Amino acid sequence: MNQLPPDPALDADWTGICRRIVEEQKKLFAEFDTMKKRDNYEGIGEGGDHALVLDRMCEDLVFTELENLADSGAAAFTAISEERGTVTFNEGGNVWVVIDPIDGSLNFKRTIPRHSLSIAVATAPNMAAVEFGYVYDFGTDEEFLAQSGEGAYLNEERIQLEGREGLEVVGVEGSDPAQLAPMLEKLAGKVYRVRCVGSLAISIASVAAGRFDGLAFPHLSRSVDVAAAQLIAREAGALVDLGDGGLSEVGLALEERFPVTVAASGDGLDTLVSTRTVG
User: Fold this and answer.
1) Dist. CA 114–CA 111, nearest whole Å
2) Do 143 and 260 share a structural domain?
3) Is the pLDDT of residue 1 over 60?
């Protein structure tokens, strides 16, 4: 990470922590492997979405690791998670950990094999301060990660976007037809093809990997879906627009809402931002 004062939370082995969580989640997914087993809801999470029982179970796995970190290393940090909301460890400190235990819950429930774990670590409560980003795609068994100033990696191989122009393939998310249709009308004639994965974090990471030329989203997004992936995209050379102002003006709090557009080129970003229907 960047040259910052020593901090037990910031200096923790976040890659190792994330990998342990992934392995525990895989065991859980193998046990709950059918729609019948997965289609059970348990109220509404702090992020405002209906929460699957397995959303909370996966979040518990994440918090087990966070509790171990806080107890064993005297690390102080604030966790921001989709189901539990904001939780402070050792009075919070100067580190923020942003978590979505299952990004793509509907895919997961329906056994569509594209959903992800997303974890970001920041030194201030805004997007510009994210120092570490981790996205794991359980459908492809692919690990995306980045550290600020040190590049982005896919399965431990450095990824760096080349100077590709045009918008041949663009990822779209939030596929509520009523909100998606107006944006698609604006994309017509500007984009050759669109693809909808069903996980915002995976789609943004797909721009980082050069698979998508951009990402367009017709809704306002949340920190838990975007914080990790936007760092991965930026470290790979992609451009990220989260609305008016800069990344430092976009907060990590769960109640924050903001547009998100990502592209591999400046012209592509301008085109996609011009089709935005929110923010």
Assistant:
1) 8
2) no
3) no
